[in-house]
Amino acid sequence: NSLRNVKRFIFTDSYSTLLQFTNSLFHQKVLFFSYFLPVASSSSSSSAMSRSIVRQSKFRHVFGQAVKADQCYDDIRVSKVTWDSSFCAVNPKFLAVIVESSGGGAFLVLPVHKTGRVDKNYPLVVGHSGPVLDIDWCPHDDNILASCSEDCTAMVWQIPDHTLTRPLSDPVVVLEGHSKRVGIVSWHPTARNILLTAGSDNLIIIWNVGTGEPLLSMDDHPDLIYSISWNRNGSLFCTTCKDRRLRVCDPRKREVVAERLAPHEGIRPMRAIFTRDGNIFTTGFTRMSQRELGLWDPTNFEEPIALLELDTSNGVLLPYYDADANMVYLCGKGDSSIRYFEVTDEPPYVHYLSTFSSKEPQRGMGFMPKRGVDVTKCEIARLFKLHDKKCEPITMTVPRKSDLFQDDLYPDTAGPEPAMEPEEWLDGRDEDPILVSMREGYIPPKSRELKVVKKNVLDSRPTTRRSMSALDTNSLPVSSLYFFYIQNLKATVLSQEKRICDLENKLSQYTNGTD
User: Fold this and answer.
1) Taking every pair of C-alpha atoms in the chain, what is the biggest distance, in angstroms?
2) CA distance 458 to 461
């Protein structure tokens, strides 16, 4: 070809064309011989090439690992209720799991450090007359937990620091306002004592649990609510509904500020969570029943920021979000794997990192807050996988050679102190979470009394808010009278037990000759 071109140049006597050809031929020779020439700075060129090919991220090599068998929680009868809930809630002090029980709903509360086999007679938290559907630990007090049930109520419990010796049946407060089963409970991220509940009556109620009174309610959803997620400062929350709409709601204005029809085209249940940047991460199904995830800007719902198809499976993907690392962990019910992604400002915005796989399918999942991870082992997340009869912790770790504290992995995280009181939030104030340092490792505080402006029922001993001591017993039905007498009898027995223990201690002192 080159010889033919030379002949053409000679016959046409085109000097300019010949000059162009000569220059191109020279550059081709230079490129050809450059492959065989030594490279002066191979490290710099290779690093530049890697930067152009591989995305740089400190979480790119995160790996999951199941703990040893003796660090699991065995012989737990996980609930078999057909409800798309995680069935598990965890904080730096306690692990709570919804379990099977006869005669009503119950859940198990264990200290996080109490691993191994759980005694079949271990005391449960009982009080609901129907199966428990959802539980959630208070972000501002590690001893306070909320639960909801098919009995149309939500309850708030105060869990003692010591191990339970008898079933806990007296909630601090009973929240009654729904006409059908209550399937979702969610604490406000920054305001003290604010709890949200959602029921099958399509009603959302926001409570002040310090007084046991409802503050706000919304009935904008025409069908069953699948999920609810607060944003970072608690000014908005997003919901997914059976009518296939994704909504962003302002509870204090009692209005829907944005909505999107069918962010996922399938009719299967969706999930949605707020990210720290104010975007919304969703999981759902395509029209062909393929599972997919999406990232949306609530100020512009026309087009997704990212939309990614995953696989074909029936299990609903439950997203768990780490705001400090901006990572999302996807756990599908019935799956045996956990996928995790990083959300960034660079295309394609949702970056797949890796998958943790095991042999056993998961019935539910719990997600430890960042203040409960082990910073000495570069652990950035810990999930609690529910099997049929046990709970298995799974640690997510960034491999690092240094034993020093890794500042880039552990920015200041949300601490247990609330940023404002219920009245301040209700008046329109918004505050981000109060952050704490992870440098020395997080040490959970001892059980402390909650403080509110008004009288707080959580400040007193755990007695049910639905007390009958002040009611006229003559106007009560027989069943209520029995309940009233039983409650009084329980209180009498507890007071006598305490007195007996005091007397026994004094008697032992006299016997030993110490007094």
Assistant:
1) 128
2) 7
For tokens 């299990």, name the residue: 315
Angle between helices 15-34 and 2-12 in degrees, nearest 10? 160
Separation between Cα atoms, residue 102 and residue 122, nearest integer Å: 15
Report the distance separating Cα 27 and Cα 6, nearest Å: 17
Collapsing DSSP to helix, strand or coil, 185 comes out as strand
Tell me the C-alpha to C-alpha distance, in Å, between residue 59 and each of 48, 289, 352, 400: 20, 31, 11, 11
Q: Which residue has the higher pLDDT, 17 or 322?
A: 322
Cross-strand bridge partners of residue 132: 149
Q: Is the pTM of this model over 0.85?
A: no
The helix or strand, by DSSP H or E, that contains position 310, with its residue range, turns out to be strand 306-312
- Residues whose CB is less than 8 angstroms from the CB of residue 183 and which lie 6 or more positions away in sequence, other chains included: 83, 85, 133, 134, 148, 198, 199, 200, 225
Question: Using only C-alpha atoms, what is the Rg of the chain?
Answer: 30
What is the end-to-end Cα distance of the chain in Å, rounded? 115
- pLDDT tens string 302-360: 999 999 999 998 899 999 999 999 999 999 989 999 999 999 999 999 999 999 999 99
